[in-house]
């Protein structure tokens, strides 16, 4: 219409070294739906029902039912068959055998999900966050993330094997996703199986959106690689035994925007059975 001024496109402020603006944390396509999502009674009901997935017994029951359906009845189990040169010794076979255990042992995801969802601008937009869990084995981690408020339709997993329609088969060193695909990545106790940690971390930065959140969990290693091989009866995982968070993330230190949570572990902690090393930070590109 005559006399109407055109508006210049509004630019997102969540990039570079700027502090993320809560209005632009996630993909702009969701901005118009924020008010509708927050006020929708149906969406609110769904989120409240999802919270029941934080009850361990309920989560195990749902995870087991879906495993029986997809793995045993529909027989949708797939395994990675690509280039495995970046994987630690026996990584695929060892973790594939742990699927059953992962149906009921998934408590470590809480160490990553709690600090992530405590970040205020993440907490306000959980239903819209495109989220990737690297190395979940089974759906337990994904269901727990849904319990924390992430939308089930926006949660994806990536592992070297899968029975689940929510978990893609692939290698974290060459992820099958376009650049800037995710708002949040949780990588729990997975880098210890990499023989090329810089490449795996670089891939996480690549598929995260600018300002996206990366949550990493690892264990304190009290044994050398050789001692671990004797303990297991065979070689397993990466030869790289790093027990300091700064060393773990050193390959992407220039991409770290803000630290939100840090937890180190020491030899004394290990004797008290406290072995988790956890870091949560945002990414710049």
The CATH architecture designation is 3-Layer(aba) Sandwich
> Overall pLDDT, averaged?
86
CATH superfamily: Vaccinia Virus protein VP39
Q: Beta-strand percentage?
A: 15-25%
Strand order of the largest sheet: 5-3-2-6-7-9-8
What class would the helix/strand composition place it in?
alpha/beta
* N- to C-terminal distance: 40 Å
Helix content: 25-40%
How many whole angstroms does the radius of gyration measure?
20 Å
Overall geometry:
globular
Please outline what is shown here.
It contains twelve helices and nine strands.
Overall description:
The chain has 285 residues and is α/β, with parallel strands linked by helices. The protein has one domain: Vaccinia Virus protein VP39 (Rossmann fold, 3-Layer(aba) Sandwich). Helix content is 33%, strand content 18%. The strands form two sheets. It has a seven-stranded mixed β-sheet with strand order 5-3-2-6-7-9-8. α9 links the parallel β6 and β7. The N terminus is likely disordered.
What keyword list fits this structure?
single chain, globular, Rossmann fold, disordered N terminus, alpha/beta
Topology diagram in text:
Blueprint: H1 34-39, H2 41-50, H3 56-73, E1 78-79, H4 91-96, H5 99-102, H6 109-117, H7 120-123, E2 131-134, H8 140-147, E3 155-159, E4 161-162, E5 167-169, E6 182-188, H9 197-207, E7 208-219, H10 225-232, H11 245-248, E8 256-263, H12 267-271, E9 276-283
Parallel strand pairs: 2-3, 2-6, 3-5, 6-7
Antiparallel strand pairs: 1-4, 7-9, 8-9
